[in-house]
Amino acid sequence: MIKLTYKPQIDGLRAISVIAVILYHVELFYNDFKIFSGGFIGVDIFFVISGYLITSLIIKEINETNSFSLINFYKRRSKRILPALLVMILISIIFAWNYLTPNSFIQYSKSIISSVFFFSNYFFYLEGLIYNAEGSLLKPLLHTWSLSVEEQFYIFFPLLLICVTKFFNKNFFTLFLILFIFSLSISIFTTSQNSVFSFFSTLSRVWEFIAGSLLAYLEIKKNKIEMINKNYCSYLGFFLIFFSLFYFDNDSIHPSFLTLVPIIGAFLIIASSNSNNLINKILSNFIFVKIGLISYSLYLWHFPILAFARNRGKVLSDFDKLELIGLTVILSLLSYFLVEKPFRKKKFKFNFFSIIILSFDSFFAFFTYQSIKTKGFENRLHVFLKKTQRVLLEHTIEDKNGMCFDRIKDFCNFNENSKTNVILVGDSHTGVLSDNLHKRTKFKKINYISMNRGTCIYLPNFKKINKIDKQESSNCTLKSKKVIDELISNKPNSIIVLGGDFKAHFNDSDKDWKYENDFNLDPLASYIESIKKLLNNDYKVILIYPIPGPNFHVIKRLMQEIPKTTFNASKYLSENPLTFNLNKYYEENINIINSFDKLNHKNLIKILPEKIFCDHVKNTCFTHSDKDIYFSDQHHLAEVGASMLVDEVEKGIEKFINY
């Protein structure tokens, strides 16, 4: 078997990359400054290293043997990647069983299949995940997207490399340079059109591997690397990488032309890895080299450990995070010495190895099937919790065209012949009310129209823009808002019920989208003006104030806190109420509440959810009673909580009808 000359500096570079990725996902802060806010570029550095090593290996084997065995290459890659990955997934099932709700468990089970068959990058994209969003940190196997990209590269790249080496060897550098520029151009264009797809897409990452390939070719074939000042390159490369780690953040356009900064940095450090300068001495340090050797296991274990800890429904303290880093190191060492190293070093017969892998894959396929069949093994839950978590309330209301939620046109319209119209407009916070409100208006023979979309409230003339690719949100377009305005204008004297997660829409926060208006107006002030316009045009408005949210996942917390052995959950909940602070709610929503309080009109009814779910004397809000749960997660109402709020909405509707 062909072996490359060992360069400890590359393991040192791996160490920096994996440390950066781990600290990025751990989310450690110093005075509101996120440590390694650009740590996600560690993955890009891994891609450069992979392209360099794989190209070096293949070219060297072709040079020395005048041939190359694809089968042996794939065998080595399988033994390198699969054992540790499969063991990590197998053990993660134990934690998933204890910490994931049934709905989350089904998604997790599907992600297992996408991970072991190396298409998880596209799976997570199709699931609608945004890598750096808060919800993505709860997906235990999200980090396998990069392994899928790498494996897809390993499958097709050797074929390309062999073809070019055999038929176009004299033009190797020129062809790969063209491929590099072409792939980078695709990446920049794709990011500008759809940043989420570009992040997960292999096509947007090929140029990063090719950067390593170009370096390998220059070293082996042309010796061009000897012509550069390696000390200068080493220091510059080190600076570029650390600049990226500290100054890139979630708002950085990535992958894109900007990503060239860390890629060039990695290129220069690897190019100067033979020189005896300070940077290479640091990277060749015993500690960095050892971290680099276990970097694959560190990468495999860190994300599921953090995800499961966050899935417990509690906010992680800095001490918790340090403990989790320690656990990651321990499990990574065990993985390296007990799984990685034995499978890489020992000469297992490949037939035996294939049987092991096939057995794992078969088990995971059967496990996923059972997970879907049993609704995420929902019998794991106390019977008290089953009904609450089973469905997303905003998804339960349908008409002949399917689910009403998240439409941009042809909104659900029930009982159109009625002279009384009730229109519910908002995001998922109002969406959870929709089915319950429909049932009550149907009983009263009222025409009910549902126009609720995820993270999209009634805010005419404002675009919702993705901060990275600057594209308009597909479910909250300006065009769709005009459709809503036209529908409302065609229903004079209607009762308009408005609500939403106003804190997310109007407070300055670290979110991946923003509102834009041609006149640069303030979104909250404009929302108030849009309500005034409705009132002045003789519409009746029921305004639902911000709904108090616990900011922790209620079902997940109760999964952990209600003893599995108890038969009397009501007694336990009465004695151990899960509450949150009312003052915190006021602090988070003070500007919104003050703006709403200033609105006064005979056609306006205000509903204050804190009066329903909170005790003002005790300054406490409740997530449940002794018999029912009010919230399904951090801020969405569960079925009973939604019904309690709709009780107040219904009173408002009756008051308007009886004017």
Overall tally of structural domains:
2
Helix content: 55-70%
Number of strands: 15
Strand content range: 5-15%
Low-confidence stretches: none
Detail the topology: elements first, then pairings.
Blueprint: H1 8-26, E1 29-30, E2 33-34, H2 41-65, H3 70-99, H4 102-116, H5 120-126, H6 144-167, H7 172-193, H8 195-200, H9 206-222, H10 230-247, H11 260-271, H12 278-283, H13 286-293, H14 295-310, H15 318-345, H16 350-373, H17 383-390, E3 398-399, E4 402-403, E5 412-414, E6 421-426, H18 428-443, E7 447-452, E8 463-466, H19 478-489, E9 495-498, H20 502-506, E10 513-516, H21 523-536, E11 540-544, H22 554-561, H23 569-575, E12 579-581, H24 582-597, E13 604-607, H25 610-613, E14 614-615, E15 620-622, H26 639-657
Parallel strand pairs: 6-7, 6-9, 9-11, 11-13
Antiparallel strand pairs: 1-2, 3-4, 5-7, 8-10, 12-15, 14-15
Helix pairs in contact: 1-2, 1-13, 1-14, 2-6, 2-9, 2-11, 3-4, 3-14, 3-15, 3-16, 4-5, 4-16, 5-6, 7-9, 9-11, 10-11, 14-15, 18-26
What can be said about this structure in brief?
This protein is α/β, with parallel strands linked by helices and 659 residues long.
Question: What can you see in these coordinates?
Answer:
- The longest helix has 30 residues.
- The chain starts with 7 loop residues before the first helix and ends with a helix.
- It is elongated and about 90 Å long.
- It folds into two domains: 370 residues, no CATH class; 204 residues, Rossmann fold.
- A hairpin with a 2-residue loop joins strand 3 and strand 4.
- The mean pLDDT is 90.
- The chain is of the alpha/beta class and 659 residues long.
- Strands 5-7-6-9-11-13 form a six-stranded mixed sheet, sandwiched between helices.
- The chain is built from 26 helices and 15 strands.
